[in-house]
Design brief:
Helices cover about 35% and strands about 25% of the residues. It is an alpha/beta fold. The protein has one domain: Ribokinase (UDP-N-acetylmuramoyl-L-alanine:D-glutamate ligase, 3-Layer(aba) Sandwich), CATH 3.40.1190.20. The strands form two sheets. It has a nine-stranded mixed sheet with strand order 5-4-1-8-9-10-11-12-13, sandwiched between helices. It has a four-stranded mixed sheet with strand order 3-2-6-7. Strand 6 and strand 7 form a beta hairpin.
Length: about 300
């Protein structure tokens, strides 16, 4: 089992009402890899600068993430600085420095060119599509994106979406991408472009899975402690894809379980800054939280005598 992940590794400076931290480990591929590493091996393709701290590399390796595809380029690492208010939904971007990430050209090691699963994290859609030309067609290709590409490169993004099996985006991005006010209609529109599966992330409220004609709603988990939501969506994708990598031919029921497992990993991610909550989770912690998610939506059938009468 192994997953090929292509995306960003970054240094974040983040301020929330609960703390402020500078130059902490971040990036879409980082959060994805940390979450997925609890289920499978992740082969990471990304780029960092010469200033990237060794202890972050050591941490990723300690999680079993293979860094053969992590390029160390001349220059500085991609940096993002943001601030959150108490709603923790929409961060204010204070500074973005692409640095070496501006010239990122994914290089896939030869030994990784036949992945079972490929996850294309949030990068330029043309680069995502280019990665597909460098590997033998995986059994499952999943893609994440964001409003920046939806608004700035809609045609490039649509071409890339047509070439993948699964799209994982948030609810607002789904509506914006399809130009539809109805989430259901937006999902159907995007699926008509080629993908078989779409997951609409809804933050603290859960996620919706659209798979063919099927729709599944996964709950959100009420949490007492939320310190930093950065990377929650990538951790969600990591938990979901990591779970699916264990199954040779996933069916609809497997995708349902995967969405819940994605929500489990995202719920851990937000409980601390950076990837700190994902450093040393136990199998027991993950299993208990999965059972908590199941119990949130479980209910017995209504007795027949209490059903409406014609």
């Amino acid at each position: 089992m192994s997953i090929l992940c292509v995306g960003s590794v970054a240094l974040d400076s983040i301020e929330t009402p609960f703390g402020k931290h500078d130059d902490i480990l971040g990036g879409s591929a980082t959060h994805f890899s940390c979450a997925a590493s609890y289920f499978s091996t992740v082969n990471l393709v990304a780029v960092v600068g010469e200033d990237f701290p060794q202890h972050h590399l050591d941490f990723l390796r300690s999680r079993g993430v293979d860094l053969e595809g992590l390029e160390v380029a001349t220059g500085s690492t991609f940096r993002w600085k943001g601030r959150y208010g108490y709603d923790l939904h929409n961060p204010e971007t204070l500074d973005t420095q692409l640095n070496v990430f501006a010239d990122f050209n994914p290089k896939v090691p030869q030994s990784w060119c036949e992945p079972k699963i490929l996850f294309l994290a949030n990068i330029h859609p043309a680069l995502q599509r280019d990665v597909l030309t460098k590997v033998k067609r995986p059994k499952l290709v999943a893609l994440d994106t964001m409003n920046f590409w939806i608004e700035g490169e809609p045609e490039e993004l649509r071409r890339t979406i047509a070439a993948v099996d699964m799209v994982i985006i948030n609810e607002a991005e789904c509506r914006a991408l399809a130009k539809e006010p109805s989430l259901l209609q937006a999902a159907r529109t995007i699926l008509s472009w080629g993908p078989k599966t779409l997951v609409a992330k809804q933050g603290e409220y859960g996620a919706l899975l659209f798979h063919g004609d099927e729709v599944f709603a996964a709950p959100g988990l009420p949490l007492e402690k939320v310190l930093d939501p950065t990377g929650a969506g990538d951790s969600f994708a990591g938990g979901m894809i990591g779970y699916l990598d264990q199954i040779s031919d996933p069916q609809y029921e497997d995708f349902k379980h995967a969405v819940v497992m994605g929500s489990v990993m995202a719920s851990f991610n937000v409980e601390d800054f950076s990837c700190d909550r994902l450093r040393n989770l136990s199998a027991e912690e993950i299993t208990r939280r999965y059972q908590t998610f199941r119990s949130l939506s479980h209910f017995e059938p209504v007795p027949a005598d209490f059903l409406p009468k014609a």
